[in-house]
Design goal:
- The chain is α/β, with parallel strands linked by helices.
- It has a single domain (about 15-215), classed as P-loop containing nucleotide triphosphate hydrolases (Rossmann fold, 3-Layer(aba) Sandwich), CATH 3.40.50.300.
- It has 6 helices and 7 strands; from the N terminus they run αββαββαβαβαβα.
- Helix 1 packs across helix 6.
- It is globular, with a radius of gyration of 16 Å.
- The relative contact order is 0.21.
- Necessary for normal cell division and for the maintenance of normal septation.
- Belongs to the TRAFAC class TrmE-Era-EngA-EngB-Septin-like GTPase superfamily. EngB GTPase family.
- Pfam families: MMR_HSR1.
């Protein structure tokens, strides 16, 4: 019987090279968006990244692009309330959604952000996949399930990416993977494969690059 939500395998050499070349292209910050009217033209494929504050989203984007400091982490979790767009060559946007958790954000800011997120996820036809980042040290939390439910209702396919896997022991990682699998079974928009990464060690980066390259070929 095939396991539900298996770990993504390393790409074959051809796919790995295609992914490497995709992310060898120039990466540039385009703009931070606070309202739908500010979105750049939907003239290319988009991939978005979502996750709790301090999940390692900026580090992952920087590791993928090989560009230090391209995505900058906010010093105060929950404060960055913009959708940040980056070009990855002429035909791909990488979209960095604000870290959720909202520990330090006023309620009106949270409500405004939630409206913008809902509008973006529901209305962006060029969005191919959302990557939902989960800190491997903590597993999936209720706030992660909230964003998964929103992606379900927006009919946006999302794929779970475990971050900071170098920070825990293999046995503990196995337990977290099982916990995350249990959560994902409740979400119809979940892509049936989990990516395990460490931005610091480079683990899983080639796999994620190859997955994104594959999405561009569909």
């Amino acid at each position: 019987m095939q396991m539900r939500f298996p770990l993504a395998e390393e790409p074959d050499p051809q796919a790995a090279e295609a992914g490497r070349l995709l992310f060898a292209r120039e990466s540039l910050f385009v703009k931070g968006v606070v309202a739908m009217s500010g979105l750049p033209p939907a003239d290319r494929i988009e991939i978005c990244f979502s996750g709790r504050s301090n999940v390692g989203k900026s580090s992952l984007i920087n590791a993928l692009t090989g560009t230090k400091g391209l995505a900058r982490a906010s010093n105060t979790p929950g404060r960055t309330q913009e959708i940040n767009f980056f070009t990855q060559g002429p035909d791909l946007y990488l979209v960095d959604l604000p870290g959720y958790g909202y520990a330090n954000a006023p309620l009106p800011v949270v409500e405004k952000w939630q409206r913008l997120l809902k509008q973006y996820l529901s209305g962006r036809q060029t969005l191919r996949r959302a990557f939902v980042l989960i800190d491997a040290r903590h597993g999936a939390k209720p706030v992660d399930e909230e964003i998964m439910t929103r992606l379900d209702s927006s009919a946006v396919t999302f794929q779970c990416v475990l971050t900071k896997t170098d920070k825990i022991k293999a046995a503990d990682l196995d337990k977290v993977v099982e916990q995350v699998r249990g959560v994902l079974t409740k979400h119809p928009a979940a892509y049936p494969e989990i990516v395990v990464t460490s931005s610091e060690k480079g683990d899983g980066i080639a796999t994620l690059r190859a997955i994104i390259y594959g999405l561009m070929q569909e």
